Amino acid sequence: MKKIKVLTLAETSDGEIVSESFELLAWARSLLETEESEGESSASSEKPQLEVISILPGKAHHPEELCYRGADRVIHLVQDEFQHFLPEVYRYALLEIIEREKPDVFLASATTTGRTIMPYLASKLRTGLTADCTKLRYDIETGKLLQTRPAVGGNVMATIKTVFGNVQMATVRPNSMRTPDSDSSRMVQIESLEFPPEKLRSKVRFLKREDFDKGESLHDARIIVSGGKGLKKAENFKLIEELAKHLGAGVGASREAVDRGWITYPHQVGLSGKTVTPEIYIAIGISGAIQHLAGMQSAESIISINIDPDAQIFSVSDFGIVGDLFEILPRLIEKLKERKKRAPEAER
Amino acid sequence: MKLAVLIKHVPETDNLKIDEKKGTVVRKGVESIINPLDLYAIEEALRIKEKHPPASITLVSMGPPDAEKSLREAIAMGCDSAILITGREFSGSDTYATSLVLSRVLKKTGNYDIILCGERATDGDTSQVGPAVASFLDLPVLTYVSRVELSDNEVEVDRIVEEGIETYSASLPVLLTISKAIGVPRLPTLKGKKRAKSASIKYVHFDKSLFSPGETGLEGSPTMVVKLFRPVVKRKSVILKPRNEKEIDESIERLIDFISERVEL
């Protein structure tokens, strides 16, 4: 039986492999699942085998983790040129690797890097690319990758296939798949691949990086508290920040709140901002226009507080309170403070 | 300095409503506008033009004939000329075919020093066209750009990425995709509006010297939509409507329980 070869693009941050890259391995491993067998990992005898190969650009402290979490093989690009994201250098290396490996499928996360390198690469490969998929299945009969993604702001889902081109390429939405556990009994196979330095020249040079303060970054927040137009003015936005602080949450905002200058753009969630997938998303004073829903409706749980009982946001919420946020938020913050004070006593 | 800005004419998503019964988007009465995120690319191009004269900005768009409206609006903001690629041969193009078409027209119409695009379009939401065009033209690409500094044939930019801001430099020519963080786009001026009214838009139609048959539109698109469906909403909504102080307090207690059952506080 034919082997189905899947390449995934891993990413690192300060030498640590990011969780999205482990999620990609879960995506790759689940490609052959059918609706009935969903969740089962044991491959039946009729199923073709999957071979999952992770490409890891840049030096990483623990490349073997990719094997522990589902990769059969790691191609580690250890030259200095791969330390930062230089699209031309990445493209050259990936084209070489694809030429050698001839994969059926190539996956990356829909991160800033993934969303840049994948179209940059697909043009050269003359193949299709589907962005930000929320479901992927490999149809054994036809050999086609069925790529499902939200369209029209997430109100319609579209399933897409690649009709020509040798490699079927997709980026997948971060945080929409559980990170696979690390199993150190799995076999480790790491190849350090080097290229002639003259092939790795780039017109782009990396100069420096400044990290956001903790809490400013939304992409790994477990809870996000977002505020919208209902906050009425800039100083009221502090209520959102204070609530976020007591919940250990990231701060998000609707486009209106950002456009009014209440908070900066990196916090904006929605079609013209970020797509977030936290465990809990709390929308406060946000009516729930498609613009906003598109960026948050794949959160695991959604809570909303809005004064308008007909607000669209309630239709995507798991838990909602119809009421005045100026009455609710101060009390909620107060109760969270009390809870914290009580907690140490309870431990005793 | 020759600048090009790629823009897309998109349905205005702000006022889109969902037909709750049919579960589809109500398109009736929805106007099409310049992709809101393209305004930032236009703004950055205008800033470069002001700081580094002489410079000209050419707008390039592929879309239906009424995309002319968006092009005129961008001219009213201060851009110099516009090219509209239109015709049934182009309709149904996916991001690959769109990028191929745009890159051919860009290659034919001028040697641009900087090509600017919005970070993505609010309708397709892919972010793919900018990098793909750069690749077809063999240009370096820098995406999610929040600051641009230009000097001596070189550009220095900040990029907003997941965990912070990275600074890069690149030699020209280059393609940049511009993030909203660069600042507020200007409004069209009265003088600009007058000029936009009389400005002539250059139309590009399917032309065998530029494209081979089958290279554009649905035929030229490696991806194909095979199914459209309404997502199953799995949420079990509990919506509380507290009517008095006591009920408000109870609602808040339940809200805290809801959170703490899911994430350790």
Number of strands of chain A: 18
**Bulk shape of chain A:** globular
CATH homologous superfamily grouping of the largest domain in chain A: HUPs
Oligomer: heterodimer
Q: Which structural class fits the helix and strand makeup of chain B? A: alpha/beta
> N-to-C terminal Cα separation of chain A, in Å?
61 Å
Question: How many strands, what sense, and barrel or not for the largest sheet of chain A?
Answer: 7 strands, parallel
End-to-end distance of chain B = 56 Å
Which structural class do the helices and strands of chain A define? alpha/beta
Give the amount of beta strand of chain B, in percent.
25-35%
Strand order, largest beta sheet of chain A: 7-11-6-1-4-5-12
Element string of chain B (H = helix, E = strand): EEEEEHEHEHEHEEEEHEEEH
Widest β-sheet, arrangement of strands of chain B:
11-10-9-12-8-1-6-7-13
What is the total tally of β strands of chain B? 15
- Per CATH, the class of the largest domain in chain A reads Alpha Beta
Percent of residues of chain A in helical segments?
25-40%
How are the elements arranged and paired?
The complex is a heterodimer of chains A (348) and B (265).
Chain A: E1 3-9, E2 12-13, E3 16-17, H1 19-29, E4 49-57, H2 64-68, E5 73-77, H3 87-101, E6 105-109, H4 112-125, E7 129-133, E8 135-139, E9 144-151, E10 156-162, E11 168-172, E12 190-193, E13 204-211, E14 223-227, H5 237-247, E15 250-253, H6 255-259, E16 280-284, H7 290-296, E17 301-306, E18 319-322, H8 325-347
Parallel strand pairs in A: 1-4, 1-6, 4-5, 5-12, 6-11, 7-11, 14-15, 14-16, 16-17, 17-18
Antiparallel strand pairs in A: 2-3, 8-9, 9-10
Chain B: E1 2-6, E2 9-11, E3 17-19, E4 24-26, E5 32-34, H1 38-51, E6 56-62, H2 68-77, E7 81-85, H3 95-109, E8 114-118, H4 129-136, E9 141-151, E10 154-161, E11 164-171, E12 174-178, H5 190-198, E13 201-204, E14 223-229, E15 238-240, H6 245-262
Parallel strand pairs in B: 1-6, 1-8, 6-7, 7-13, 8-12, 9-12
Antiparallel strand pairs in B: 2-5, 3-4, 9-10, 10-11
